[in-house]
Amino acid sequence: MSDSPSSSTAPGDAASALRIEPAELEWRRDAADREAPFSARYDDVYFSREDGREESRFVFLAHNRLAERLAAWPSSRAFVVGETGFGSGLNMLLAWECFDRHAPASARLHLISTEKHPMGRDSLARIWQSWPDLAARAQTLIAQWPHAVAGIHRLRLDARVTLDLHIGDAAESLAALDGQVDAWFLDGFAPAKNPDMWHAGLFRAMAAASHGETTFATFTCAGFVRRGLADAGFRWRKVPGFGRKREMLCGELATQPADDARRDTPWFSPPPLRSAEHVAVIGAGIAGASVAEALTRRGSRVTLVDPGGIAGGASGNPQAALYVKLAAEPNRQSLFYLAALQHAHRLLATLDPERTLWSDCGLLALASDEREQRRQRRFLDHYGLPANLVDACPAERATALSGLAQRMDALHYADAGWVDPAALCRRLIARSGATLRQAALKTLRETEAGWQLVFDNDSLDDGPLIVDQVVFAAGAASTAWLEGIPLQSIRGQVSMLEDDALPALERVLCAEGYVLPPRNGRLTFGATFHPNDADTTVRDTDHRRNLTELSRTAPALGEIDPGRLTGRASVRAASPDKTPYAGPVPIAARWRADYGDLGKDARRRFTTPGAHYPGLWISAAHGSRGMVSAPLCAELVASRIHGEPLPLPRALVDHLHPGRRLISDLIRGQ
Asked: Is-contact 530 490, C-beta < 8 A?
């Protein structure tokens, strides 16, 4: 087991898989004299030139009985539609329209679509300007359209509709999907034009992500498609096709395939679903606020618990950088943070489009020496990311972008920037409608009615709080309630200078320290790093350290008198491997008993699924990058609690699992 579950090593093809080739489009007129896209790469249309919308409704909506099933859908979990080949988005927009028309008000819709060669935002806008009845929905999609980066991109189309766009090969994307689909739209370019998609691996991945009532529909009747579907466990039948097409296929899953997803990692098997009507979230910083918003959006009632109130800890800083430092070569930690940065940007743009509490002004990661310059060059070579996401930035351009003279080359993260953490927490909590209880958790006990919580300030009339589930999101303070999940306290102090004549810094600057563009006449920079220190007293020595780093990061700011500085110190929590914890809380003693033989043979296979405390979860160890990592981790936890597809591939979900340290310790014989 050279690549243990706790390893941050990415799959061997991770670097090449990040390089995405965009769609190659030609524009032709359809039967209604509208501009329609045509794929030059596959020599095929994206949808019928006669009436693409009606064909989509006939093939995919009608033959999956979508309107009928949505009208009768219970509200316990979202209805999930899976699609192979997003293309122009027509099928997804029509499924959304069908949901709005037929589903009860309590229902939710989760769309999953794969796309190997995504269109650009401008191309999508060009298509949908000719479809006025779908234009509003299309504009919502276009506004959140992601960069052409491999991975899962979660888009909130509205309060009840979510789209996960999987950019990359369809079969590989679906094989890594952690979730189940209720109805498949088996689309894409015709098998004769794109045989690389229509193969046994795709059909097997579809079957693995299906259940006993999953249906499918597709426009093709090709013989090898019929055989591939049957071999994967689907029952198919021919039915009349749309328009001039004589036949098409539809059907359902007939035979559930063996679940091999956890064959090598049974300890990461998800716990059984249980009621999530009322959830307590311990911690009202960015981790807890994000979890509260994610849960209430799915229908849970949330009680937030924090003795310091909203953003009383590290999330109370006046400004924080939206920034990640990715490894020179892709590994699981970097792939997570890359996804989290893009997710945070979409969330903030949706939550606050006016940019009142954040700014995507851009960020310059400065190369402080030749070694860092080499590392940055390797990074650009290995990731192959779009230049409008991250790009090389020579010192001259860095000077022009930042407004301050720069001596160092840099990486320019165009979508990064800064956020007001406390304001963000307040906005998320207000949006959630969660109840805040300003108290410290004193005891936690499982009862037949649920988890019983007793607080330090309970009166005789209060009685204990009883909830269905509990999420720990209190940073280092979570340690007292969690065995086998190590958390390290790290003190950090930021320094602030109040001055009406501050320089016009236009970008966030990062090296060993960081400095943020002035806001409301205040310059914020920092931050110190003191492991195993929980003191929050502001120290002059830390101000001097911050000034020393500032002189290296932004020497053009000149000398600053330490006596003019104010500051704020707080305690962050980190894991030993510097990756957050997001997932169910393992029963450590059971894991040690069930998997103890890993210390003798790390390759030994087990069949016992991981034992977890029923209804206990954690989102913690976000360290200094919590503004980026916490929202995506909240989506992961809330999706798992509500039985939805997860916003990350299975390997990255496992990488975040709170039990990963238990397994790695057992393998090392500790």
From this structure: yes
The phi-psi region of residue 325 (left if phi > 0; otherwise alpha if psi is between -120 and 50; otherwise beta) is: beta
Question: Which token pair is 280?
Answer: 């307590």
Residue given tokens 């006990």 in the structure block: 445
- Extract the tokens encoding 121: 């935002």
Q: What is the pLDDT of residues 66-98, one digit of tens each?
A: 999 999 998 789 999 999 999 999 999 999 999
CA dihedral sign, ordered 575, 578, 579, 580: positive
Q: How many residues does the chain have?
A: 670
**pLDDT tens digits, residue range 620-646?**
999 999 999 999 999 999 999 999 999
Please tell me whether residues 592 and 507 are part of one structural domain. Answer: no
Residue 6 contacts by C-beta under 8 Å, 6 or more apart in sequence?
577, 655, 660, 661, 663, 664
Query: Which helix (H) or strand (E) is 445 found in, with range?
Result: strand 441-447
Q: Could you report the per-residue pLDDT of 531-547, keeping only the tens digit for each? A: 999 999 999 999 999 99
Q: What is the CATH number of the domain that holds 66?
A: 3.40.50.150
What is the number of structural domains in the chain?
3
Place of tokens 């098409």: 248
pLDDT surpasses 50 at 1: no
Identify the pLDDT of residue 36. Answer: 81
For residue 432, the tally of other CB atoms under 10 A from its CB is 22
The single-letter DSSP state of residue 474 is -
Burial 622-646 (b: 16+ CB within 10 A, else e): bbbbbbbbbbbbbbbbbbbbbbbbb
Query: Which of 548, 571, 594 is a domain's end point?
Result: 571
490-518: average pLDDT: 92
| Angle between helix 223-232 and 200-208 (nearest 10) | 40
Which helix (H) or strand (E) covers residue 217, if one does? strand 215-218
Buried residues in 461-485 as b, exposed as e (16+ CB within 10 A): eeeebebbbbbbbbbbbbbebbebb
**Same domain assignment for residues 508 and 526:** yes
